[in-house]
Amino acid sequence: MSGHSTYVPRTALGKWFEARLPVVRLLHDTAVSYPTPRNLNALWTFGGILAMMLVVQIVTGIVLAMHYAADSRIAFQSVESIMRDVNWGWLIRYLHANGASMFFIAVYIHIFRGLYYGSYKPPREILWILGVIIYLLMMAAAFMGYVLPWGQMSFWGATVITNFFTALPIVGQPIQTLLIGGFSVDNATLNRFFSLHYLLPFLIAGVVVLHVWALHVVGQNNPLGIDVKSEKDTVPFTPYATSKDVMWIVLFMIFYGWFVFYQPNFLGHPDNYIEANPLSTPAHIVPEWYFLPFYAILRAIDFNIGPIDSKLGGVLAMFGAIAVLAFLPWLDTSKVRSGRFRPIFKVAFWLFGVNALFLGYLGSVKTDDILFHVPGLDYQAVVWAKLSTFYYFAYFLVILPVLGYIEKPKPLPVSINDAILAKSAPSSAH
Amino acid sequence: MAESDTPAEPTRRDFLLHAAGAFGVVGVAAAAWPFIDQMNPDASTRALASVEVDISGVQPGQAITVMWRGKPVVIRNRTEKEVEEGKAVKLEELKDPLARNANADASADASDANRAAAGKENILVMTKVCTHLGCIPLDESGEFGGWFCPCHGSVYDTSGRIRSGPAPENLPIPPYAFLTDTKIRIG
Fold it and tell me: Where are its TM segments located (chain A) (predicted)?
């Protein structure tokens, strides 16, 4: 989609600069004249929303780091002082803490958009894999950020998650000791997590540049999932995509603002307002909401699989649930991108979405809770987690590979322009 | 670079190129090591390796918890009933058949005698960190009258052996020794 550049420097200074560093041309081609498919719907604004959230997190984070002390003796107090003493500290911290949740809400919508419209299919494989890498970096950044307030959930979350590595045979224990810098989570752990938490957003920004670059090489997918064939199928990024992005960013900010100003602790956990105590584990440890589906998968594997014990099996299943996304471009064998034209896929996809939410719910309850007090369905949560985990993997490893061969897709429109005209034709014909 | 179709003998230039490349790889690895190893616990952390505890005040049925290497170690003076329960368990009922006792042979079985202090069957010293994902089990709870981990539901018996739940191993017993009859050194 990268055609000839239409940028023409008008002023003398612009021409002088253009001859030395054509950065204005790059920005113009990227954010102004870049042709976008004319049928993009609101789901395509989440890339812009995510870019905004990354900036919000970096700006609020830099400010918080001016007041935070990464020392296990005073970290908790320094966060309390941000909340009570620092001018506007409460606002900036609530923006940052809820910003992490908003970031994940937006990224999950963005990922499911890609899953439904087949945005991972050729030629967008690299674009998709870069996205999976960003998602992984986001999870690492969010986990380490949650440790910094040094509350009970911070401490025990860090303990449980770094203990995942001890499941690996032989190398597990040395790796865990290396990660936490001691025999248990302590000041050394807090310091390195703070250092890395400051680093990761900038790594994310770097991979985002590659992600956008790859996007601009292959062009955006669109709700029909068919290629752009001529200029008639596109509109320029500015003003069309820009104004749509801005409108949805404003709507998203209202949603974000509602949490920050009215429910700032709804997405957190009250136990994290208790200072970390290495001698007492909270009765019910749960990760932040955005990790719950993976936590449910971890706990679902409570049985040994051949030589793999339940602990290693759970950890492998959890990491596998994310790793499988990277192989998706080759697991889905259908030539048709958009779910709109795939009747069976549609059903499997929506089941997958509901199943993912259900896994999130399962991650939040105790494994022996009875979910449905109905005869015949009164199983413990862990049984449902096993079923849900099975469908999660079956979707990627069985359904998508097989569907490409047995499903008969609906006929695709000739072009984006034709589809739009056909939609408006019946009314205009009368 | 005059190339011919027949493979020539390696030249001096080839040798220099490969030798320099090999040195470069070793050099990069040597330079990287300090940046990796700095993350490991330093000598001052590792030196916190032993604590001495007076257990004269711990009556039967009581336990104290001390910190060793940043982890809680429980020292329990078990009641006769608890000892009997621990002895009564058949070894084949155990999920983890090994003693996990740093003071005994690595292949020692998980009998109550191999878990308790040598010559003092009522004293049990062990690291109170769940072998699943590192939470702290609760004392005197769970269906086997020993310890119960609230995080993911692992249950340990009165000898600290894993009996049900996701944890793979018995609670580990740290190296320790009796200095006097009522004083022990852990580590």
Answer: 43-70, 91-111, 126-148, 155-175, 195-215, 246-263, 312-331, 343-363, 383-406
Residue B137: cis peptide before it, omega within 30 degrees of 0: no
List B18, B46, B81, B152, catalytic entry: B152
- Tens digits of per-residue pLDDT, B72-106? 999 999 999 999 999 998 888 888 889 999 888 88
Q: Which domains does chain A have, with CATH numbers?
A: 29-424 (1.20.810.10)
Give the C-alpha separation, A296 to A365, whole Å: 9
Cα–Cα nearest to B172, from B113, B119, B123, B104: B104
Sketch the domain layout of chain B as residue ranges: 12-45, 48-186
The domain covering B48-186 belongs, at the CATH homologous superfamily level, to Rieske [2Fe-2S] iron-sulphur domain (2.102.10.10)
Residue contact B40–A314, C-beta within 8 A: no
pLDDT at residue A428 tops 80: no
Which pTM value belongs to this model?
Answer: 0.89
Partners of residue A285 in chain B, C-beta under 8 Å: 135, 151
Q: pLDDT tier at B8 (50, 70, 90 boundaries)?
A: confident
Any idea which of A150-159, A168-177, A244-253 has the lowest mean pLDDT?
A168-177
Q: Which helix (H) or strand (E) holds B63?
A: strand B62-68
B136 touches chain A (CB under 8 A): yes
What is the CB neighbour count within 10 angstroms for residue A258? 12
Range A37-66 average pLDDT: 97
Q: According to the model, what pLDDT value does residue A1 have?
A: 42
| CA B51 – CA B62 distance, rounded (Å) | 20
Is there a catalytic annotation at residue B132? no
Contacts with A295 (C-beta within 8 Å, 6 or more apart), sequence order: A286, A287, A318, A363
Strand order in the sheet with B123-127: B62-68, B71-77, B123-127
Q: Provide the token pair at A305.
A: 């699989």
The amino acid sitting at A395 is Y
* Tally of CB atoms within 10 A around A205: 15
